[in-house]
Specification:
Methane Monooxygenase Hydroxylase, Chain G, domain 1; 7-stranded mixed β-sheet; alpha/beta; globular; Flavocytochrome C3, Chain A, domain 1; 4-stranded mixed β-sheet; single chain
Length: about 550
């Protein structure tokens, strides 16, 4: 089966939906999403979206906070453009019906770790869900946006897919859409597009503990890497310091850990060891409001030092009704788990949360392939550097989705786009595969390996051990992939393995500790040293 459209958008989080809305003003869109259109990392974002709204705040302050958090690796131009465009993109969200929490006539602006001012717009503690609701409602009104649910992208259409032309990766210069697996029909669809936007979100499922939903298997990162697209800074994986710790099995949490928002610490939450002692003052003058990488390493160190599984987050000194009003979802979820956060400490542990690296794009969201754009967590725009400032992610996704849509408008208008004949999907001669247990085992092995050796604290020997194990799984997975009909689990395993490889390879290249990458072999960062981004462009693992 083959479909054609002007613009193909893969992903239905804030980046994909907002881009679809803007592109629909001048072109036809097919929007592909793995589950239903509301399932995304955006939907799980609790804290909010950062922007300069308060008259006492300034662009300069927001830029400076972002640069400090990024540990010397942010692209100042990218940061400044995001910050300055932020208020206009917030207005766009409000115009389509997003209901941010207010105090009287003013927005209730929260303060989070790393921010010098209160500038976080939120909708109670379900901000992402509210933004998704408004965006989905608006997208559904557009007759020229076709939503393709329960579909997973397999690979991008490039020069590789021209009949009779098996070219090397270095000769891939264009993207003309993607092969998509319709999981409801178990059928591969070739979607040909003049321009493609990858808005596939994150890769948290690479790790054993993550706040990301089950769909966050790094599909966009892996497809781009296989197509020869430049990706960068994959070593910078942000571990959220405070995910809810439970002895329940992971399946009871639908494959992800429940996130206790950054805003809880911004609200005054205190971190305590099991014996009740405070400890953040031993690690940073900002204490609980230090950037996430510092807080996550502090918790990790306390756990290792004490041989314990979790620390506590304490809100019991705050007004009970204010806690419930600010964090109704967190309150109810903890209550279901027999913890009343107004009276009891919350057990928390770090979990993989956000990838600061990704597909290298310019200020217009253009990748190294003509016709391929990207926005949201799957990108490396230069905004986050070595560590993302809290609540900048949704803002970056909005700004770059908008920039992608503007750039594609010019691309469609002024470029001569000649799409060659492209191969149909061919699965003749392959086997139907029923040994799902092997897939499950490999996924679990990848997750455990990445958690043990490529987590919050790393070392050369850990990375080398991880590299060997991931390489073996890669060979087994590729052999299986070539022999069998495609199905969702094999595609996701393939993508998880590819992402793991890029994280390990990037981590081995960075001979220093900086931001989210901390290694005991190079514990110190020299502020005067000019550190380059780690750029990868290679298929072979």
């Amino acid at each position: 089966m083959s479909l054609k459209t002007d613009v193909l958008i893969i992903g239905s989080g804030i980046a994909g939906l907002f881009a679809a809305l803007k592109v629909s003003e001048y072109a036809d869109v097919i929007l592909v999403t793995k589950k239903n259109k509301a399932e995304s990392n955006t939907n799980y974002a609790q804290g909010g979206i950062a922007s300069v709204i308060d008259p006492n705040d300034s662009f300069e302050k927001h830029v400076e906070d972002t640069l400090i958090a990024g540990a010397g690796l942010c692209d100042r131009e990218a940061v400044e453009s995001m910050v300055k465009e932020g208020p206009d993109r917030i207005k766009d969200l409000i115009d389509i019906g997003t209901m941010f929490t207010r105090k009287g006539n003013e927005f209730d602006l929260a303060k989070e770790g790393g921010h010098s001012m209160s500038r976080i717009l939120h909708a109670k503690d379900l901000t992402g869900q509210e933004i998704e609701r408004a965006l989905i409602h608006s997208v559904e009104q557009k007759v020229n946006i076709k939503i393709f649910e329960n579909a997973i992208a397999i690979d991008l259409l490039t020069e590789h897919n021209i009949p009779g032309k098996l070219k090397s990766l270095n000769e891939n210069m264009n993207c003309w859409g993607a092969y998509i697996l319709d999981t409801s029909k178990n059928e591969v669809v070739k979607i040909i597009a003049k321009a493609t936007i990858l808005a596939t979100g994150g890769l948290g499922q690479v790790y054993l503990h993550t706040t990301n939903p089950l769909i966050a298997t790094g599909d966009g990162f892996a497809m781009a890497y296989r197509a020869g697209v430049e990706i960068g800074n994959m070593e910078f994986i942000q571990f959220h310091p405070t995910s809810f710790y439970s002895t329940k099995s992971r399946s009871e949490y639908d494959g992800h850990s429940f996130l206790i928002s950054e805003a809880v610490r911004g609200f005054g939450g205190l971190l305590r060891t099991k014996d009740g002692g405070l400890f953040m003052h031993n690690y940073d003058a900002r204490k609980e409001l230090a950037p996430r990488d510092i807080v996550a390493r502090a918790i990790d160190n306390e756990l290792k030092k004490r041989g314990e599984d979790f620390v506590y987050l304490d809100l019991t000194h705050k007004n009970s009704q204010e806690i419930i009003d600010h964090f109704p979802n967190i309150y109810q979820t903890c209550l279901i788990n027999n913890i009343d956060i107004t009276k009891e400490f919350i057990p928390v542990v770090p979990a993989a949360h956000y990838a600061c690296g990704g597909i290298v794009v310019d200020l217009n969201g253009q990748s190294s392939l003509t016709g391929l754009y990207a926005s949201g967590e799957v990108t490396m725009t230069g905004v986050h550097g070595a560590n993302r400032l809290a609540s900048n992610s949704l803002l970056e996704a909005l700004v770059y989705a908008y920039r992608c849509s503007n750039s594609i408008k010019e691309f469609l208008k002024y470029s001569e786009i000649l799409i060659p004949e492209l191969l149909d999907w061919d699965d003749s001669g392959v086997l139907t595969y029923d040994e799902r247990v092997l897939i499950t085992h490999s996924i679990n092995e990848v997750k455990q390996t990445m958690w043990d050796y490529v987590g919050i604290v790393r070392s050369n020997i850990r990375l080398e051990r991880a590299e060997r194990r991931i390489h073996n799984i890669f060979r087994e997975t590729e052999d299986l992939y070539k022999k069998t009909n495609v199905f969702q689990e094999i595609l996701e395993l393939r993508n998880i393995v590819t992402c793991s490889h890029t994280i390990i390879k990037s981590a081995k290249l960075r001979k220093e500790s900086r931001g989210l990458h901390y290694t005991i072999d190079y514990p110190n960062t020299l502020p005067s040293e000019k550190i380059q981004n780690t750029i990868l462009k290679n298929k072979n693992i």
